[in-house]
Amino acid sequence: MNILDKIVADKRNEVDLRKSLIPISQLEQSVLYNRNTASLAAALRNSNSGIIAEHKRRSPSKSLINQKLNVQDVATGYEQAGVCGMSVLTDSKYFGGSLDDLLLARSVTKIPLLRKEFIIDEYQILEARAHGADVILLIAAILSKNEIKTLSEAAKSLGLDVLLEVHNIEELHKSIMPSLDMLGVNNRNLKTFEVSLETSKNLSKLIPDEFVKVSESGISSIEAIKDLKQYGYQGFLIGENFMKTENPGKYASEFIKELES
Ligand SMILES: O=P(O)(O)OC[C@@H](O)[C@@H](O)c1c[nH]c2ccccc12
């Protein structure tokens, strides 16, 4: 079994357990459930830098990245750096994150927050909303066309933006539908962990103009972003490159200043 299949199998058990512990009615009663959400797609369209900065403690591909940081400090730092949005990993088993991380980030910032999760069930979208997310990620590699449609429409009806992630042409073809806001190309193959920015470049021309194009993973230089912009990308999802430093907000700030100069 590849790592992605393993993650999804564990996720099914986890979601079943959570559903049995916390009923939907309880999620809907969260104060955060009834709030106006912010659009990441709109923020990216209006930005020069297009940086979406991620909070990620560890990952299956890198194991330890940074365990010492406080998520609220990271969120505040990212906001002050002028990022367009923040991605918060909420998977605990493989990435060391949690829904509490999302709540804590929400408590200190107004920037659009993405729940970075392996979403396979509508229940997780309600959780995202109840814990302060503005955006959800859907991963084409683990969903059928029908599931992408049902889940993205559910997210839209809750006022959330949808970032749909693909890694190849087949995934892209089955995914294009009006209920998505952003199309993300993951430069990292989630089954092999191989990273290549060529993936973003190769798929760019196949993404219709109405979707904001986001390039994800393995981005660590200003040159890479300038290059990807030539291919129509308006969003750049960066995790490790910021999180491996002692002060991700400060590093992101310097990075964005240099990008905009
Ligand atoms: O740390 P990086 O290489 O900058 O990558 C960030 C982000 O793209 C990556 O964490 C990611 C992209 N898609 C995912 C899906 C699940 C978990 C994680 C991810």
Mean pLDDT: 97
The secondary-structure class comes to alpha/beta
Low-confidence stretches: none
The CATH topology annotation reads as TIM Barrel
Cα Rg: 17 Å
Helix count equals 12
N to C succession of SSEs: HHHEEEHEHEHEHEHEHEHEHH
CATH architecture: Alpha-Beta Barrel
Q: What portion of the residues fall into strands of 2 or more residues?
A: 15-25%
Identify the overall geometry: globular
The CATH C-level class name? Alpha Beta
Ends distance: 46 Å
Q: What is the β-strand count?
A: 10
Portion of residues in helices?
Answer: 40-55%
Largest sheet: 8 strands, parallel, barrel
Let me know the CATH homologous superfamily. Answer: Aldolase class I
Enzyme class: lyase
Family: Belongs to the TrpC family.
GO molecular function: indole-3-glycerol-phosphate synthase activity; phosphoribosylanthranilate isomerase activity
GO biological process, one term: L-tryptophan biosynthetic process
